[in-house]
Design a protein that fits this description.
Structural class: alpha+beta
CATH superfamily of the largest domain: RNA polymerase II/Efflux pump adaptor protein, barrel-sandwich hybrid domain
Number of helices: 4
CATH topology of the largest domain: OB fold (Dihydrolipoamide Acetyltransferase, E2P)
CATH architecture of the largest domain: Beta Barrel
Order of helices and strands: HEEEEEEHHEEEEEHEEEEEEEEEE
Helix content: 25-40%
Shape: rod-shaped
CATH class of the largest domain: Mainly Beta
Strand order of the largest sheet: 2-11-14-13-12-15
Distance between the termini: 95 Å
Number of domains: 3
Strand content: 35-45%
Largest sheet: 6 strands, antiparallel, barrel
């Protein structure tokens, strides 16, 4: 019984050993097959085709950098106003007997045109009285002179020594002459008062406001009308301090005024007549006065119109004009020199609406890059394309 049990155990051990050997042999075979397969794959792999490296060169729009002179152009705005404006008032009192038909708002009057007549009857009577007083004074002087001559003759016949001034009536004659002078002044005053009953336009003008009507009673100082000249116009133009220094008042530069009236842009010419010598502290601006010149047709802008003005300033020499988009960062531009990108430093002298006026360390042959590159590098090789007909900088950066 014990022997059969030992036989079973021995058989089991032999079976396990055989199974282990078989597993090892199979694993070893698989490993050998894998190594052989890898060696075959490496030996039979295809060779990749070798290509030469291609350098990517972006294309940029550029134009030659050229320096020259630049006339500063200053843009500002202002309101058209009349050089001559006046408020007319009555100098004498009385009843208004007539007014001119043009004495209405917007009316046009000529120089010395009669606008208002005040009843002159009282002033005519005053003039007559003054002239009568002058005649009486002249008569009194003649009488005194005759009495003086008679007194001199009487003294010569009866008197001894030299006669006194009272004897010869010299003080009386002086008083009579003074009364004549006073009477003449009264006549002149009465005549002026009579003339002042007729109120005239001091110059050719338009009527801004009329304050009286026929039949009204006015007193001295009563406003009658407000007039302004429609042919002598000017515009007061403000200039920031950075622009104020570029003005050239001595040369009377020609200014272009523009405004939109009825949906149509109209233009007028003006000249810089003078520059105010004071800076307005609230806005830190100086002011220039432009005199509006009539066109060949005589057309002038209406008073009160808001206009845009383009004023030529001083001339800048040895400067370069650049589009605003060409300047990057803090005063730097990209240029192409010998086919590669180079940075140049510039100093901005003048910033205008669409361009900048600068001075910089440009070299001969530099071409200003107008294309905005995504990641430019100093020394990068580029191809240059000329700008479009309108000077724009549309180009590929691939």
């Amino acid at each position: 019984m014990e022997e059969s049990e030992h036989e079973v155990v021995d058989e089991t051990r032999r079976s396990g050993a055989i199974h282990a050997v078989l597993s090892f042999v199979i694993a070893l075979g698989l490993l050998v097959l894998g190594v052989v397969a890898v060696i075959l794959f490496v030996l039979t792999k295809p060779e990749a085709e070798k290509k030469a490296e291609v350098e990517l060169v972006p294309t940029v729009v550029a134009r030659p950098v050229s320096s020259g002179s630049h006339r500063v152009s200053i843009r500002t705005q202002g309101v058209v106003s009349s050089v001559r404006e006046v408020s007319i008032a009555a100098e004498v009192g009385g009843r208004v007997v007539s007014i001119d038909a043009e004495l209405i708002e917007g009316g046009v009057v000529k120089k010395d045109q009669v606008l208002v007549r005040i009843d002159p009857a009282d002033y005519e009577a005053a003039l007559a009285r003054a002239e009568a007083g002058l005649a009486d004074a002249r008569l009194a002087l003649a009488q005194e002179q005759a009495l003086a001559e008679q007194a001199a003759l009487d003294w010569k016949k009866l008197g001894r020594g030299e006669p006194g001034d009272l004897v010869l009536r010299k003080p009386q004659i002086v008083a009579a002459e003074a009364r004549i002078g006073s009477a003449k002044a009264e006549v002149e005053r009465a005549r002026r008062d009579l003339e002042r009953t007729t109120i005239k336009a001091p110059f050719a003008a338009r009527v801004r406001k009329a304050h009286v009507e026929e039949g009204a009673v006015v007193a001295p100082g009563t406003p009658v009308a407000e007039l302004f000249s429609a042919s002598e116009l000017e515009v007061r133009l403000p200039f920031p301090l950075e622009d104020f220094g570029y003005l050239e008042p001595e040369g009377s530069p020609e200014i272009v005024l523009t405004a939109s009236i009825g949906g149509r842009e109209q233009r007028w010419t003006a000249v810089l007549d003078r520059v105010e010598g004071e800076v307005e502290r609230s806005t830190l601006s100086g002011f220039g006065i432009a005199k509006v010149m009539p066109e060949a047709s005589g057309e002038l802008p209406p008073v009160g119109l808001f206009v845009d003005a383009e004023v030529p300033g001083t001339m800048l020499e040895d400067v370069v004009e650049l589009p605003r988009s060409a300047v990057r960062g803090a005063g730097e531009v990209w240029v192409v020199a010998d086919g590669r990108l180079v940075k140049r430093r510039v100093t901005i002298l003048r910033a205008e609406r669409e361009r900048l006026v600068v001075r910089g360390d440009f070299q001969e042959g530099d071409q200003l890059v107008l294309t905005r590159l995504a990641a430019p590098l100093v020394g990068m090789k580029v191809e240059v394309a000329p700008p479009n007909g309108d000077g724009s900088a549309e180009a590929s950066t691939d």
